Amino acid sequence: MPDAARLAEIRRRITLVLVVSQVLGGLGVATGIALAAVLAEEISGSEALSGLALTSSVIGTGLLSLPFAALMARRGRRPGLTLAYLVAAAGGALVVAASVIGSFPLLLVGMAVFGAGSSANLQARFAAADLAAPERRARTISLVVWATTLGAVAGPNLAGPAGRSLSGFGVPDAAGPFLWGAVIFLVAGVLVWILLRPDPLLTARALAASSADGGGTEERSLRAGRAAVFASPRARLALVAVAGSHTVMVSVMVMTPVDLSHHGADLELIGLVISGHIAGMYAFSPVMGWLADRLGRVAVIGLAVGLLACATVLAGTSDGDHARSAAGLFLLGLGWSAGLVAGSALLTDSVPQSARAAAQGLSDLTMNAAAGVGGALAGLVVAQAGYGWLNALAATLLLPVAALALLGRAGRASDG
Prior knowledge:
The chain has 416 residues and is mainly alpha-helical. Helix content is 83%, strand content 0%. It is built from 18 helices and no strands. α1 packs antiparallel against α6 (116-130), α4 packs antiparallel against α5 and α16 packs antiparallel against α17 (387-396). The radius of gyration is 20 Å and the shape is globular. It starts with a helix and ends with a helix. The mean pLDDT is 85.
């Protein structure tokens, strides 16, 4: 068992490894998905089906989060994160193969497998929370989320050059970034396997077992996670906040490149807009973590609702105004950051240590399943009604988050 000085050293080293892996993971994901909708439209020949590429990635992220969470619950964060990055690399290779042979079904399978990279990035925030002191938990989560900025912002801007670098080999320009993403995921997996020691989750369990209450019996099933979440009103708010924020963000973001393309934007401009969006998602997450620790998790969830609502208004009324679209996408990312950081911290706070890994796996499954449905419907909504209506419908998803946040604040006030 580590003493206080040793524990502080472990926290710093674990955080550093997670930060570096997040930089690589963010670069791998963003390089590929920047042109996912464009590639899907090229292969399928249908605008209505273009949103299914990113939707498949989101669904894959959600479905794969369960086996990865189960593996982490049994063996720790290190093998789970490593496997997730390796699976994502295989997904990138499948996407490239699908683009070469022109197979839309194989593209969707590859995108689903590629979603393992996002699953690893999301699970890393909980790995950061494993050993964090409760009063600094949101800031620790936000630091690891922030680290994704360095890779994620660069990724869309590298998509064009990455695609052209493989055009001589018969690979479509929109597919080339996925091969580069696969290589980056391999590097991230090797890094985590070698350096993420001691394992943060296993160390946290050992510390809990040595405490006065013994930490409780470890509960690892999805059913245990669901029971822990539904036993706590604040955990339910956290789950809805994370899922709602993610669904609104994905539903709008997935169709924005297509809308921009239809209004005359080239690949470089699309990359810049998506880079601004990703900067909003990650660059200001330390601010969101600081606010969540200082003002409270529920207050920052309320801020997320406001930011996401403003984003849908700006993006939905852009009508070819690229600057307005960029502003809306930036606020969309900012609202997502507030909801994810505050919601993740609140979830970790609100369930017992023995059920945390299970509850966290349930959270990632729920947020990605909901976002997958939103992304799947986004292309149909745009094809039938337009991009403005997509934003309007996405905004309605914020209503239950706002209602639960208000109830959460009222409950805290009455307790006081």
